[in-house]
Amino acid sequence: MKRHCLTAICLVISTLLLHGQGREPLSRLLDKLDKQLELRTTYEQNRLQRINALKSVLQYQDLSPEQRYGFYQQIIDEYKAYNFDSTMHYIEISDNLANSLDIRKYRDESRIRRGLIFATSGNFFESGDILYNEIDSLQLDPSLLPEYYRALQRLAAELSEYSTDPATKEMSRARKDYYREKILELLDRQSDEYLFYSFQEAYEKDDLARADSIAHMLVSRHKESTHQYAIYAYHLSTVYQNLGEVNLQMEWLARSAMADIQSAVKDHASLTRLATVLFETGGNIERAFRYIDISLADALFYNAKLRPWQVAGVLPQIEKAYQEKQVAQTKRVKAFLISISALLLILILAIGYLVKQTRRTIRAHKSLRVINKRIVSQNHELNLVNEQLQKLNHQIAESNRVKEGYIGLFLAILSDNLDKMKEFRAQVRRSIRYGKIQDLEEELSNTEWADKEIANFYRTFDTAFLELYPSFVNDFNDLLIPEERIVLKKGDLLNTELRIFALIRLGIKDSGRIAALLRYSVNTIYNYRAKIKNAAIGSRDDFEDRVATL
């Protein structure tokens, strides 16, 4: 009774969760799955790194036998859904260690794990021999009972699914239900395992509404990149399969397959099943073939006998459909090429006919007069276009002349500065030669001439810049909020802020270079730039880029 109450609570919660979530379109899920398949090597490397880290601890750390046994169990957990042979290898190692330690719990645990992996891989005889003959359930450590019953229940479930003997199938179904009840008696009612076996019970009794609720509760408890999510999403897809909701079935299969890929699982069923449904529903055959091909490669890598057999059951059909589609596409391409060739031949004949007709027309005197009139008209239009081009060329030449003039002006300033420097050096030498050190110091201490030269430089720069960009001040102010716009003093062409951003307009953005040109400190330049950008309309981050386009 308590179990059914718990399931009812799960139903309510999962229903609320379902109403709160939006469905992602199947096409988008399949596209995401394709991208995840491209990254599967990366996810596998992550798993191998975890495995190698565990192996490194075993190799280089001084561990007690009990600690080594614990690390072997972690390695087995990493391998059990990745590679069957490696899983069996480490189960064998842990079993040998358990025997050497003579700890019954460890021996039984290793046997249970071996029996379970045999059951899931299709080695039913070996699994039954271990679980029924090598383990004494009466002397089993109580903590191992849930795991023992899980292994027995899984073996019974696999036999009921794949056995061809009716008596064996019937007996296995009974054992499956019996061991499920034993497991439910031992598990915490809030645990995932309890909910999962409750899902199985509801599903097998065809109570699909309850099964659907429990499965949604289970997937909601796990991240979408985990193996547990993949397992529960796959079982949820089986509910929609039985309900005839094919799109929902494929959506949950796609989610399950993505989780399998992200957790680097090789022993999976979702991708195979998704390929099968895509094929059966007449969906994307190329995608179905790619999925089944990857599934087969993973099954062969895992190297257990059950999964390749499952994949092989559907692979020939999908491969045949894929090849038939390829043949059909080849035929269509051939037909298309033949059609194009025929059209090309018709086009060539038509061109020949037109050429012949054109020659006849040219020979006609009347047609020549019409053509001549058209030529005259076109020449007139070309003359108009040429006049416009000449005007544009003139404007361009004028612009180049102005720019060349100002380049010459700046070169003249530079030459004048060099002459002044040369004259100043000569004066310094004369002062030193005739011992007029005092006069030289006084002249060097006088900054009036330097201030005058800087002012002349500013005036020359301002004049030249505004000749090139006459609307710069107004355009610049349009980028600032009204209350922060720059108002020049009477007689000024530019002020310090405008000169800084004029240099930026000319392509000089480094504060150090600007400071050197304008005779300010770098900090002063930085503060001016920050102040102006804070007054900008819109984002301050791209303000200077906007100035550069004025």
Secondary structure topology:
Layout: H1 2-19, H2 26-38, H3 40-60, H4 65-79, H5 84-101, H6 104-121, H7 124-134, H8 145-162, H9 166-186, H10 192-204, H11 208-220, H12 227-243, H13 246-262, H14 270-280, H15 285-302, H16 306-363, H17 365-433, H18 437-445, H19 448-468, H20 472-478, H21 496-505, H22 511-518, H23 522-534, H24 543-547
Helix pairs in contact: 1-11, 2-13, 3-4, 4-5, 5-6, 6-7, 6-8, 7-8, 8-9, 9-10, 10-11, 11-12, 12-13, 13-14, 14-15, 14-16, 15-16, 17-19, 21-23, 22-23
Uncertain regions spanning at least 5 consecutive residues: 1-8, 10-21
Rg calculated over all Cα atoms = 43 Å
Task: State the major sheet.
Answer: none
Q: Tell me the series of helices and strands, N- to C-terminal.
A: HHHHHHHHHHHHHHHHHHHHHHHH
Helix percent reads over 70%
Strand content: under 5%
Decide which structural class fits the backbone. mainly alpha
Count up the helices: 24
Q: How much is the average pLDDT? A: 84
Overall geometry comes to: flat
What's the total number of strands? 0
From the N-terminal CA to the C-terminal CA, the straight-line distance is 79 Å
